[in-house]
UniProtKB/TrEMBL annotation:
It comes from Halomonas stenophila. Residues 6-74 form the DUF6429 domain. InterPro entries: DUF6429. Pfam families: DUF6429. This is DUF6429 domain-containing protein. It comes from the Bacteria.
Amino acid sequence: MMELGEERIGDAVLALLYLNLHEGQRAWKSLNWAAMERLHEKGLISDPVGRARSVAFSEAGLKESERLCRRLFAR
């Protein structure tokens, strides 16, 4: 397992919360629906619309998510 930089992860989470900004200073806790739909359209994740609380990665999506995690957060 790679060693992760908690500060960088915190920065990314804060930036993602900003994408969900509404009513001035509030943010939805879930990820941005438009961004999730774009990932689905690219074939990286399963359809985010539905009752399930999670999405499944495609093989390409899993590889890309690991690459990005290493690039953005690894120490």
